[in-house]
Amino acid sequence: MNWYQKYASSNICFFVDLDETLIISVSKVSYLPTAPPEIAHDFRKSIQWRKSLTPEDLDREAKSNGFELIHFEYPDGDDYRYVKAHPMADRFLAELNKISNGQVYLCTSSHELYAKKIVEHFGFAKHLRGIFHRKDINERSVPATCENFILIDDLGPTTAGIARKMQFLGKHLEQEYYSDPDEHEKAVTELFGPHFTQVERFDGKDSDSLQNALNQIRKKI
Ligand SMILES: [Mg+2]
User: Fold this and answer.
1) What does pTM read for this prediction?
2) How far is the CA of 35 from the centre of ligand 1 (A)?
């Protein structure tokens, strides 16, 4: 029996962040490729080089780094993003799915339309039971969840972003802001500790972040 079969009946749920955890997404206008090594040390030459790039050059450069361009049709206008999935994202979600017997949810502060399109694009949907997005979190509608859950996110446990998601998942800090930072950290550790695994931010480069998160989760459960 391997480790996930052992825990498959433990009624655990996972809530997984999207941006900078499973994927990286950069707006088309702000995508700035790194200048070639021979001129990267020279600020002026680097700027000239960037100015000389055409949209086609940018697309080629992004694609050569494994980014794909995705088009989003929002009601108030279009958006284009260069996106890249963590190389282990699919396997990570599949493992969580096995451990939890299919209790894996996306939990993102991003918009619903964005989250759904990304999930569909990268084929994550087959591992997910549902998607909770910005509107859900802001309206603090508590999802039907198990007591025994773990939120996986690249943000630190004491950030406002995590406090909001935890509140959504039914873990309320007694005070939103503690005047004493040590007291704040203590309250966060006590309340969120068993329910939170922080992953290293995914920035598009090779990273063991999701493997490390899995190792931490195995210890926690
Ligand atoms: Mg994130």
Assistant:
1) 0.87
2) 27
